Amino acid sequence: MTDLIEIKGVTHAYKTPNGPLPVLDNLTLSVPEGEFAAVVGPSGCGKSTLTRLVAGLMKPDTGEVWLHGERVKSPRKTVGMAFQNPVMLEWRTILQNVILPLEIVAPSMSQPDRKARAMELLQLVGLDGFQDKRPSELSGGMRQRASLCRAIVHKPDVLIMDEPFGALDAFTREDLWQTMHALRAKEPFTAVLITHDLRESVYLGDQVIVLSGRPATTQFVLDVDYPGGAGLRQLEGLYTPECAAMLATLREQIQIAQGRQPGPAVH
Ligand SMILES: Nc1ncnc2c1ncn2[C@@H]1O[C@H](COP(=O)(O)OP(=O)(O)OP(=O)(O)O)[C@@H](O)[C@H]1O
Ligand SMILES: [Mg+2]
Q: What are the residue boundaries of the ABC transporter domain, all occurrences included (predicted)?
């Protein structure tokens, strides 16, 4: 399998009034095509910075970012993005919001085709019937579902998500995790998910990358062997000894990243 995302020895510092703030330090990681990489790390270590580099919104001081064998030097159309607080245009309906990326990257696509493509995704995430509502008429979970549709409507090579489920309650979040698997089963994409939730990282990730404290480097990579084998992952798998062991490993790694000694688990 080829690596779709390759980050090679990336080092970056922000210029601040108090001098340079080193954020990424010789960071290297790769995500094979079709894989889902979850990235966890201490708050403020540089995770969002990493997403901006992959999307081409920023250039690193040194090192290289490659997507699909091409060096990233400017913003990429082939990247879809979703954030914690989905930014939706209130003067557009949900359908019109989801169609927006197609208007930008596929101007020659006919309006009926755009609508059909958006409706296909809205149906998949359980939002058919809501396409004519305004964003403010939807719940937070529904808005995030629509935002995921918008992020993949133009079939990007890579979906980058920065804590997309962080603002949702626990049950809605679990629903969205399942939606995520359903979307991937329908149209496989390569994904990078930034999260603070270790269970989320294990349930969704094929690999979980633990970043060190700032300046961040790749501290640890866990290959997820989710109980139940191939096929759609079941939430119940999270309560198995195999998952408990993976979560304990990750928790220990986060504590190391935070510069603390690992201690007994608190549930
Ligand atoms: N544009 C900027 N200019 C200067 N400093 C910045 C800029 N953006 C981020 N920083 C600083 O860089 C560090 C890393 O920021 P970043 O947002 O990448 O962290 P993060 O891991 O996403 O944090 P969180 O977990 O809180 O979302 C932080 O200390 C932040 O204050
Ligand atoms: Mg962040």
A: 5-238
